[in-house]
Amino acid sequence: MSYFEECLRLGEWLGQDDRRALYKYLVVENKEIYRKQAISLLRNSQLQRTIASGEILFTCKNQKVSYVARKINTDNFTPEMREIKLSGFKFRNIAKLRKFFAQSDVDVIQNYPISVEKDFSESGFGIDAYPYYDLSYYSNGKSRVIGLINKVRTNDRELLSKLRTL
Questions:
Q1: Rounded Cα–Cα distance for residues 39 and 139 (Å)
Q2: What is the layout of strands, in order, in the sheet containing 64-71?
Q3: pTM as predicted
Q4: Distance between CA atoms of 119 and 76, rounded to whole angstroms?
Q5: C-alpha of 66 from chain center
Q6: Which of 24, 47, 54, 59 could make a disulfide contact with 108, Cβ separation 3.0–4.6 Å?
Q7: C-alpha dihedral over 127, 133, 139, 145, to 10 degrees?
Q8: What are phi and psi of 44, to 5 degrees?
Q9: Strand 54-61 to 64-71 pairing
Q10: HSE-up of 99 (CA within 13 Å, CB side)?
Q11: Residue range 98-117: average pLDDT?
């Protein structure tokens, strides 16, 4: 089993570093898929897809994109989890949406993993306060300059190479 498949099964037991590396991996590996999905979302104002045991529904309204999620084969979606504002430039919006999609995938993997080997809590939908694409994540909500410095210092090479290995 690859480390990526293991991540799909671990869910809430994924560590902070693992989730951040998974995010970076998804941004790169799914670049073309996310690009096509972003174009579809911008055209149709709605996009639905699945990852692990979760289903994600993205909606685009008033130059804002948000998502809700649910476990596959259940009725109720979570409340809106994250939201981003779009700009007037299509190429910039697609780049923002690629990162947004990867973040939502990590959020859903964390909450709705594939495995039933462990007893997962069904108490709610947990996400990190700041998304990995935001410099606030790297400074814990403080200065963007500190966030940039900390982001540059972050070393995920080992985990990323582990994810890329089949």
A1: 32
A2: 46-51, 54-61, 64-71, 82-85
A3: 0.87
A4: 21
A5: 12
A6: 54
A7: -160
A8: -105, -5
A9: antiparallel
A10: 15
A11: 90
Q: Comparing C-alpha atoms, which of 91, 55, 58, 60 is closest to residue 73?
A: 55
Cβ-proximal residues to 132 (8 Å cutoff; 6+ apart), any chain: 19, 20, 23, 24, 99, 102, 103, 106
Q: How confident is the model at residue 137 (pLDDT cuts 50, 70, 90)?
A: confident
pLDDT at 118 over 60: no
pLDDT tier at 18, thresholds 50, 70, 90: very high
Q: Is 107 helix (H, G, I), strand (E, B) or coil?
A: helix
Cβ 81 vs Cβ 68: under 8 Å: yes
Any bridge partners for residue 60, and if so which?
Answer: 65
CB-based contact 156:162 (threshold 8 Å): no
Alpha-carbon gap, residue 39 to 17, rounded angstroms: 30
How many Å apart are CA 154 and CA 99, to the nearest integer?
18
